[in-house]
Design a protein that fits this description.
Nucleotidyltransferase, domain 5; disordered C terminus; 22 helices; homodimer; alpha/beta; 17 strands; about 600 residues; Alpha-Beta Plaits
Chain lengths: ~600, ~600
Amino acid sequence: MEISRQQFQSKIETIREAIEECDFIAVDTELSGLHRPGGSKRLDTLDNRYTEYKEATERFQIIQFGFCTFTWDERSGRYMAKPFNFYIFPTGTTGRIQPNRVFMTQAQAFDFLAKQSFDFNKWVYQGIPYLTVTEEQEYIAEARKRIRDDLPDIRIDEKEKLFVEDAKKKIAKWVENPKKTDDESGVNISTRNAYQRRLIYQEVRKSFPDLTAEGRTGFIRIVRLTEKQLEKRTNEQMARVQKDCDDAVGFRKVIDMISASRKMVVGHNMLLDICHIIGQFIQPLPDNVNEFKKLAHKVFPYMVDTKYMCAASTELQSRIGAGTALENLRFETNQELFKNPYVDMSIEFPRYLHDKEHEAGYDAYITGLVFLKLHSYLEIQANPPPPKAPEEEIKQEEPEPVKEEVPEEERKRRGNTDGWDVSDEEGEDAAWLESDNEDDQFNQDDEEDVYNYGSTRYPLFDQDRQPASVIANYVNKVVMVRTAFLYFDFIDTETIDHTIDAFYITSSNTQQPSPLPQADILALFAEYGKCIIDTAGDDNDASAFVVFENLKEDPNAVKENVLKGLAAEEIKDVQIETIAKYYENVLLLRNNVGQEINKE
Amino acid sequence: MEISRQQFQSKIETIREAIEECDFIAVDTELSGLHRPGGSKRLDTLDNRYTEYKEATERFQIIQFGFCTFTWDERSGRYMAKPFNFYIFPTGTTGRIQPNRVFMTQAQAFDFLAKQSFDFNKWVYQGIPYLTVTEEQEYIAEARKRIRDDLPDIRIDEKEKLFVEDAKKKIAKWVENPKKTDDESGVNISTRNAYQRRLIYQEVRKSFPDLTAEGRTGFIRIVRLTEKQLEKRTNEQMARVQKDCDDAVGFRKVIDMISASRKMVVGHNMLLDICHIIGQFIQPLPDNVNEFKKLAHKVFPYMVDTKYMCAASTELQSRIGAGTALENLRFETNQELFKNPYVDMSIEFPRYLHDKEHEAGYDAYITGLVFLKLHSYLEIQANPPPPKAPEEEIKQEEPEPVKEEVPEEERKRRGNTDGWDVSDEEGEDAAWLESDNEDDQFNQDDEEDVYNYGSTRYPLFDQDRQPASVIANYVNKVVMVRTAFLYFDFIDTETIDHTIDAFYITSSNTQQPSPLPQADILALFAEYGKCIIDTAGDDNDASAFVVFENLKEDPNAVKENVLKGLAAEEIKDVQIETIAKYYENVLLLRNNVGQEINKE
């Protein structure tokens, strides 16, 4: 379902319902540009990568957001998917609060989107604006001040002094004896411009603190309100502010609802998505990566990255291999082994009955679909179903499932099917016959006989609201490529990837770090195989990584030999560490000094 | 005529023809954002304004460019307009040279364009890319180096040493006696990757300087070329580079053609357009405003701003008034007094037979149309036509033209009409009759009897290629609002606008300039009327302008009184100058120190 700016308010309840009813939510974004275009680093530090992503969130915008809810339907034995697609554009044409936003666009990013038939007119003409949490708070604080008349005094122009005096006299006369004036219930002061209005408000506040000035078109009416009336008036004004704000919050409502649901949020290679979602809709990202982790975990308490699952699970890797791009995962999980569970598009969500790759809503749908298949596969691997009757035997190329006793309880939990064989053709025929019965079509009720696809739901959480054991290891860890870490961890410290062959080079003169003689260093390392050198951060090229494609020799021996070579060429002040040693030091520092490490 | 990316190359000759044949060219741009959004300064310095515009050119992009040529057609006694409209998008999908561009977008600017039905899909899908002059030069220098084999040596990997030795032996064998080898005319070395190819090029260059290595698919062929063959080869390679470059230059060709034509370029409030055109298509704008003036004047030697004409000409002001917005000028010049000359859309350019306001091509057309009317009006005012016969007398509300003898020569120059009365109804009828004559329609030739609209062309240049006297004063001066100058002058120093009531305030402690106590200063000035205070530049609020809506008292007296007031409140280190004095100082400095002033 694509929801435009014009439909947004009227569709909020549809969105809320989908989020509230569902088992989990998959998300995806399309961006106006990517971080550090043209950068080609092979190895990066965690802090450096985070800083890159943070800067990207300050430059570029999410221009399309997609999410897809997946809801188990017990009666039909399948999941129902509801994919939503939104264009996001910070238009200033709706509502009374209009932040003026300037953001960056990367031509190559638009070229990429154009290849996927992205509709840039829908983006600008129908994209939904938003207010961040921070912006909303600031606006409300400002409005509260205004309503409480808590404004600084302004000076009275010489030529307006008479105007103010006349007004004061008129008000004083009414105060003295309202019944003697034309209008017993209040007194009106005509004003010609905003300046005069401001002066009247100010004067009433100062000279008649028990009266209230109310703006009207062309004049100000001064009345005496009871405390109750005053309270009512303030409440009305604050309600109006709240309404304006509510309108302006716009698309952020969707993010707020997803966050408040505390449901599992699934993405594919999702670190950059999460950074952009938080930076654009919640608040500017903190400088410190640990602060960011805390914030992100608060917003989305259970994140799962399908790319990380495939990279980290040996079972999935041996089945799927190294191709963890979303399209590839979709292809792989289309195979017989990943048949469970059955997933259908909800009837009101027909948009993706045909493929629409790289539309955020579609990619979110595919991500969630893949997640269900991967999860189910892992569950089946952990607790294989009982062996089949011979005529239903599994094809030869498939590995024989490990035979294992399934406890009665577990069997009950999985429902009355065998867990993944849903090819019940007889049942299917019956369903078709049924839907041909016109009487039944018009007499549907809760007791209706629905066709059951017989697929199995594996709960994502256990009774204690802990993620299910087979996926627990993947929750709140996401892929982080081109670093020496196996993943980015929202909860804990990252684990080093010991398979990377690399060295960390620094100027050993810590007093006056100078740029490294990169060419000489690389030349010496190149004796041991193909390698490249990358600067390690924004520190004036005084540190670098040398990364090997495939180092056959012992890293410590290579290190010693290169150091000897440097000495022979009289190159001084260069320090070399193996990557393992380097990252151990970093993690040690991080754990000991806590957040201090992030300022290194 | 709207020209897309896909049509661009095939339409180049149509564009060239229009530019070459025309009398002048009107231009307009649409931008992805405006300089300093939300800024509300009432008074600005020239340098500050230029810096703002320069920064805007570095941030935002021209996303649509329009120009319209106007060509006098003697036979039909009218101008023929050819409006062109181009979307500009720096796509990386065409050609071999693909700069990766990142630019800013201001949501409010897109909102504005959306109100005019701007087509953002055409922008991204059909927008034409470009290469600046600077980028083209860099690319060609780089390619020349590559072709001349002028590349730095790379180190030979240990494991490739054997490969290189074998190749050398094979080449040496062929050199010794080509006839003894399989292939008398050259020797082929198979390569597995780019690294091996690079090594072979390098080795041939070093060990066989009289041979030439030529890349083929999967191998490198080494041959002996004569000097003539070598030259031919180099020329072919350079031609290929030139062709790639030519493709990549893209839309800049249009700007180059307009510039090379040295024709009059007309805009409306055109300073920002000119800044963006030069910054986006020629080279980054210089830091110094005088350098910019020189550069702009070199690119467009005769610029005319219709808004400036109307603001600066007392004749036009008394006729048109203060409303110098383009739509207003169009309305005003639609009146009887501005009937001359008659302008028609060229037959192949039907796009703007209906209005399309704020499409760049349309706005360029209207700008040129207005310019022709204004110019003609000024010519007629300077040399009124002879008085009419009584029955044709001018309506009462129109001012009686000053009676003046028109010299015989001048009358001849203007052609055989009276200069602005083209309501020759008899002739019009004749024309209609004529076009009904079918025989004639299919027998048109150069001698054909064309209906003459009888309007008058006033040349834009005199015999010495100097701008015509009635517009000479407006050439190369453009409107610059919210400054104390009457205009921005591309040739000369600007003139002060003495009608502005303002003061320039600085910290008089020039050693340690501190932020001014703005509120206190404003309070003292406010005694003399409505005024606002603006910081004057990026100098830590240590300088400011106080601008009055309408100051009735003598500025020098006000200055003295405010200084006294400051003293009474014990506010020190504040210096006050009247705006006239301030700008005189600035101009004096500028003239004396030349460009030094721009660094102030």
